Amino acid sequence: MSDSGGRSQILNITKRSPQVSRFESMLSQRVVGQGAAIESILDSFSKVLAGIRNPERPILTLLFLGPTGVGKTETVKALAETIFGKRNAFTRINCQEFSSEFTVSKLFGSPPGYVGNDVEPMLSQENLDRHHKEAQAEGRGVFAEGEGKIARLFPQVKNHYMSIVLFDEVEKAHPKVWNALLGLMEDGHLTLGNNKTVDFTRSVIIITTNVGAEEMSEALRHKSIGFTTKNDHEELNKDITSKAIDAAKEVFPYEFLNRFDDIICFRVLTQHDLKQILDLMLADVYSRLLTANVPMIMHYSPAYLNKLLKEGTDPQFGARPMRRAVERYLVAPLSRLIASSQIKAGDIVNVRMRGDQPNFIREGSEQQKKKAGAEKIVR
To answer: Strands 189-191 and 163-168, how do they pair?
Structure first.
C-alpha cells in the first residue's frame, strides 16, 4: 500500500471507524472490566460496515463463560441500550424454562394440528424484529442520530431488521434447543413448528453459561482481589478461564462449541472495577430519584463510600453483593426518609458514617438557603 507520494505506508489495524468508536465509547461506559467482550462486538460491527461479513450467518455468535456476577447479562443489556435505546430491547430466552421436551414448543411452535399451534412462538420473526421496529418508530438509540454509514447496520428495507437474542444459562436447556442452535449459528435460519423460516442473519446471538461455576468459585474462595498484585490477578484469570473452558468441553458437544465466532471468559472484577460499578449504581439511584419526582443533591463522604465498597466486595459473587449493599445502605434508608416526608424535592442530603452506620443529614434546599441569607441581610 502506498500514499499519494508513492511511498510505502504502514496501516493502523487498531483504528476504528467513527461509528464503531462511538459504540465502543457507549459500551465501555456501561460494561466494566470486560474489554474482550466489547472488542469482539466491535469487530463484528466493523465487518458489517466494511461489507465483508458472511451474509449467510448471524452478525455475531458469542459464548460467554465466567464466574457469576461479572457482567455477562449486563453486556447484552448495554448493547441493547446502545443500539435500540432500551436495556430490555432484546429477545431473552431463559433456558431453565425450557429444560423439558414439552416446553420447547413455546420456543419453536407446534406443528399444524397439534395443541398450541395457534400460539406465536417466542422465536418468531415478529418477536425478533419488534425491538428494531419500535426503536426506529420512536427514534431511540442509534435512530436518534440520523443516517450515514451506520445505516448499513440498520437498512431501511421492509422485513429486514436487526435483533439481539440472548440464550441465558444454555446448559439448562433441553438438548433439542442445542440442536436448533447448531443450525441457527451455521446458516442463520431456523424452521419453526409451523414450517415458517426465521431469518437470523441480521441477529447478534449471545449465549451464556455458568458451567464450571463451582470450580471457579472454589478458586475465588480464598482470594482477596483488592489486595492482589496485577500479576496475581492475571494468573487468577488464567486459572478461571482454564476451568471454564474445561467445564464447557465436558458439558457441550465439540460441534456446538465450534460454531461460535468467539468464546469469551469474563474476567474477575478488580477493586478498581468495583469502584466504577459503584459509581454506576449511585448514578442509577439518582436517576430513579428523578423519575420519582424527588430530585435532590446527594453528597457521600469517603468513609460512606468505603463502607459500600467493603460490604459489596465478594470475589465469589462479582458485582451482585455491591447491588445489595447499595439497596441496604442507601435505597432502603432513602425510601423511609422520603416516605415519611423527612426529605423533600430540592433538599441537599449528606451521607456520612457514624460508627458503623450511615447517617443521613438534610442541609435544606438551595432556595431555603438563599431565602435565609436574604432574611439575614434584611435584619
So the answer is: unpaired
Are residue 226 and residue 301 in the same domain, yes or no? no
CATH of the domain at 300: 1.10.8.60
Q: CATH code at 140?
A: 3.40.50.300
Written as one string, the DSSP assignment of 50-119 is HT-S-TTS-SEEEEEE--TTSSHHHHHHHHHHHHHSSTT-SEEEEGGGG-SGGGTHHHH-PPTTSTTTTS
277 vs 218 pLDDT, higher one = 277
Length of the chain: 379
Q: Which cell is 232 given?
A: 496475581
Location of C-alpha cell 482477596 = 224
8 Å CB contact between 201 and 243: no
Q: Are residues 204 and 105 in the same domain?
A: yes
Q: Is residue 11 included in any domain, yes or no?
A: no
Looking at the structure, tell me whether residues 153 and 173 fall in a common domain: yes
pTM: 0.82
Query: Domain check: are 35 and 107 in the same one?
Result: yes
* Cβ count within 10 A of residue 214: 11
CA 320, CA 279: separation in Å to the nearest integer?
14
Q: What is the pLDDT confidence band of residue 129, given thresholds at 50, 70 and 90?
A: very high
Residues 292 and 251 in one domain: no
Whole domain around residue 43: which residue ranges? Answer: 18-268
Instruction: Return d(Cα 281, Cα 277) in angstroms, integer.
Output: 6
d(CA 110, CA 115): 7
In this prediction, residue 91 carries a pLDDT of 95
